[in-house]
Structures are given as structure tokens and as C-alpha cells.
């Protein structure tokens, strides 16, 4: 753990590898501490503020900025690099403003959304959740819809692709390396671990 961290209230940010259980850690931790939890709600609110389709906002935040994807802004259709990149930047601006507003509103846990970087001046507890590939594959299979059938090779590639896209988005807008241990206060390996027990340990550090 980073010995220099000084936290203002209980603001916890969670970066995570896909399939590592980071979202579960975040939700359980917020319940354990009795504080707010934010994840996909941020995407919904950004879509409202930017008047962009929620699916498009999610696409940009999960796949990184693109200068090629056509979008609808209000009732006007755009195609081309400049307007699309302007909207990519608008999404990140609103993301930054919203994350800061949520952190100022009350103690909370924020999953993803580059919150560790956006809130760096507030000294949040910055967690990064990771796990070995086998554990991540097992977790993905347990939570997958019944109709979803990936071979091991396909699932492994999917997990790697999601992480690459998260890294691309994070690095593009923050200039930092996603998953770099020096950017976090605590990195947690959930391989073979009981999430509920891990959360209790983390909660003790925060209380």
C-alpha cells in the first residue's frame, strides 16, 4: 500500500481487469461501508448531459475514442473526424465533471470511468483489481447468459480485447498507463479469493 496516501472522507475508486470481480468488490464495499456506489449510472447521466445516445457513449467509453464512427447529435447526422472527436472529448469532459460532482456530493465508490485520475487531487483510495486468466475466465463463464457460448480461445481473446480497449481510453485521456501499480494505493489479486472476505479487509482499511 502507498504510505503517502491521505484520504478526504471515504472516496474509493476501482480500476479493474475484465473478469477480475472488480465490480463485485465495488458493490459489496459500498454496502459494507454504507456509502454510494456508481458504475453504469455514470454512462446514463453523461448521455443525458451531452444529448448523445447512451449506446454511443458506452461505445466510446468502452472502446476508446474513434474518428470514424458516425453519430447523431440532437437531430443532426454527422460523419467525419472533427465532429466525432469533438463529441469524444465532450464525453470525457462531462465524465470528469460528473465524477467530481459525485465525489463532492458524498462518500462513494466509483468503478472505472478514470475516476482514480480525475479525482487525484482529492486523494481517494485507489484500488486496482486483477486476477490470473483462468480465474477471470471462470468468473466470466459463471455470469454469462445461457445463450452465450465462447470457446476457451475465444473467451481469452475477448477478455484481452476488453482490457486493451479500457487501456486505450484511459491512456488517451489521462496520459497515464492503465493498470500501472504506481498509479494505485492498493492492487488486489482476486485469483481464487473469496470476494466477501476481501471486502471486509478493505473496509477495515477505510473505516
TrEMBL record:
Keywords in alphabetical order: Kinase, Transferase
Pfam families xref list: Cytidylate_kin2
GO MF term list: kinase activity
InterPro entries, A to Z: P-loop_NTPase (IPR027417)
Record-given protein name: Cytidylate kinase-like family protein
Source organism per UniProt: Roseburia intestinalis
Amino acid at each position: 500500500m502507498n504510505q503517502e496516501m491521505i484520504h478526504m472522507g471515504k472516496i474509493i475508486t476501482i480500476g479493474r481487469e475484465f473478469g477480475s470481480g472488480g465490480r463485485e468488490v465495488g458493490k459489496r464495499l459500498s454496502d459494507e461501508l454504507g456509502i454510494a456506489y456508481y458504475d453504469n449510472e455514470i454512462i446514463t447521466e453523461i448521455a443525458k448531459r451531452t444529448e448523445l445516445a447512451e449506446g454511443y457513449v458506452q461505445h466510446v467509453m468502452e472502446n476508446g475514442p474513434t474518428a470514424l464512427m458516425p453519430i447523431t447529435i440532437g437531430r443532426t447526422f454527422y460523419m467525419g473526424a472533427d465532429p466525432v472527436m469533438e463529441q469524444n472529448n465532450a464525453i470525457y469532459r462531462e465524465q470528469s465533471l460528473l465524477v467530481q460532482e459525485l465525489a463532492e456530493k458524498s462518500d462513494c465508490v466509483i468503478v472505472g470511468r478514470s475516476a482514480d485520475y480525475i479525482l487525484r487531487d482529492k486523494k481517494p483510495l485507489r484500488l486496482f483489481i486483477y486476477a490470473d486468466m483462468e480465474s477471470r475466465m471462470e468468473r466470466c463463464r459463471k455470469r454469462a447468459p445461457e445463450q452465450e457460448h465462447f470457446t476457451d480461445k475465444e473467451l481469452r481473446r475477448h477478455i484481452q480485447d476488453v482490457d486493451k480497449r479500457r487501456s486505450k481510453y484511459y491512456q488517451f485521456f489521462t496520459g497515464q498507463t492503465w493498470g500501472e501499480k504506481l498509479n494505485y494505493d492498493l492492487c488486489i489479486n482476486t485469483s481464487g479469493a473469496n470476494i466477501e472476505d476481501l471486502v471486509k479487509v478493505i473496509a477495515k482499511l477505510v473505516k
